[in-house]
Specification:
Layout lengths: L1 H21 L10 H25 L2 E3 L2 E14 L12 E14 L5 E14 L7 E16 L2 E12 L16 E12 L4 E14 L9 E15 L2 E14 L7 E15 L2 E14 L9 E14 L4 E13 L5 E18 L2 E16 L2 E17 L4 E14 L10 E13 L1
């Protein structure tokens, strides 16, 4: 038992080191709107359980509420803040940040959890680009258990201006948007079966007039039925749908439906696989940009997490999906991505993380189509300087190539980013 707890703590520490670099490579979840939200909800539930265990080991309490807090600072050098090859600019970015996570066991069967992360990015030479960020894991969740049932009510918010997570974007330093998802999920596990269903309401607000055409709201629905072969192994079928309304007449309101099988397999204690795939279709209320009013395609998702030793872990993800496009003149993006990460705890107080990714996108835009490739790699070294103080040094390279050269600064870019950061955890 002591070995299991020790290993859990060690893996959590390695995961923190890997995330510092890995999360910069772009999202790894499927992007059908409702299915993406459901998969993210699965991961957040697992993360809440792991974080709660960590907090219980070394809690800060305020009455019945247990929480952890951290503050940090990062200094970043970016040699291409505008994501372009024609008029690239470099800058130093100063980033103070804080994060609070807490849990309140309201009753024996209910748990209220919350988390908020806030940072401020100050550009030294281009101060007009300075802005506030609210991290995507800022959320409120209420888990309620009743015999074989688990109900979760949640609200997730984020505010960001980052461009790197949007593979289709280039030639701009900012993509400011506020996103909020509020919903309810229910899970029923009678015997060897598992049934899930969920509803959520999603809002996307563009906070820069240039992107007003993206402001929208969606009603999202999700259902899943599976046979559980073991506690962490199951297979079944899942379906999702969404109703999306755009504020701008430049975009068409649309409805989507996806359906397909999935499997989650705990092959060994140290090896976990998940796979899903199926059919997805979008129906648009009107044809825009001279295109069709329907889109039929397919999605694929594969994820493998493997702990080779107590000191070495790695993971592989593959996705192919359909996304609502962020570009003016385009409705949807068909997107393919492969990502790999590895983390090595080479010292009891230090770890090394490496990652790489490759992705392709296909956009049909007004007057022409664009196909693009993007690849990148990164590394990060993390030191546990003191019991509550850690520091990291990270590097990231990204390259984007497009077959379209229809504007002066085109859609290609190379970017190098170096980040030095420190975090103190209370």
């Amino acid at each position: 038992m002591l070995k299991t707890i020790s290993t859990t703590k060690r893996l959590a520490r390695w995961a923190g080191a890997g995330c510092a670099v890995g999360c910069l490579c772009g999202p790894q979840a499927l992007a059908q709107d409702a299915l993406r939200n459901a998969v993210q909800g699965d991961r957040e539930f697992e993360s809440r359980n792991l974080t709660r265990t960590q907090i219980q080991d070394r809690p800060i309490s305020a009455g019945p509420v247990l929480f952890r807090a951290s503050v940090g600072y990062a200094l970043e050098w970016n040699d291409n803040i505008i994501y372009t090859s024609a008029r690239s600019k470099s800058d130093f970015i100063s980033r103070p940040q804080m994060h609070v996570t807490g849990f309140w066991p309201a009753t024996d069967q209910t748990m209220l959890s919350f988390g908020v992360g806030v940072s401020y990015e100050h550009y030294l030479d281009n101060s007009h680009l300075s802005h506030l960020n609210v991290s995507p894991d800022s959320a409120l969740a209420w888990d309620i258990t009743a015999k074989d049932w688990l109900f979760t009510i949640y609200d997730r918010i984020s505010y960001s201006q980052d461009v790197i997570s949007q593979a289709a974007l280039s030639g701009t330093a900012r993509f400011p948007r506020f996103e909020n998802t509020a919903g309810l999920r229910a899970r029923w596990q009678p015997s060897h079966y598992e049934f899930q269903m969920g509803y959520s309401h999603y809002n996307f607000y563009a906070t820069k007039s240039e992107y007003d055409y993206l402001t929208r709201s969606s009603e999202q629905f999700f259902g899943r039925a599976a046979w559980r072969f073991a506690e962490k192994t199951q297979a079944g079928i899942e379906a999702s749908g969404s109703l999306t309304h755009y504020d701008s007449s430049d975009r068409s309101d649309n409805q989507s439906l996806s359906i397909g099988p999935f499997v989650e397999w705990q092959v060994l204690e140290d090896l976990r696989l998940s796979a899903r795939g199926g059919y997805v279709t979008y129906f648009m209320d009107k044809a825009v940009y001279g295109g069709s009013d329907t889109l039929s395609s397919y999605y694929v998702g594969f994820d493998a997490q493997h702990r080779l030793t107590d000191y070495l872990t790695h993971g592989l993800s593959v996705t192919r999906d359909v996304q609502q496009s962020v570009l003016q003149g385009s409705s949807f993006t068909e997107h393919f991505r492969v990502g790999y990460t590895t983390s090595w705890a080479f010292h009891h107080s230090a770890s090394l993380s490496l990652n790489g990714f490759f992705e392709q996108g296909d956009e049909t835009r007004a007057g022409f189509s664009e196909k693009y490739d993007r690849f990148g790699f990164g590394c990060s070294v993390r030191w546990q300087l003191l019991k509550d103080l850690s520091a990291s040094l990270a590097y990231r390279f990204t390259n984007r190539n497009s077959n379209s050269k229809q504007r002066a600064n085109n859609y290609d870019y190379d970017q190098n980013v170096v980040t030095l950061s420190a975090i103190y955890q209370f």
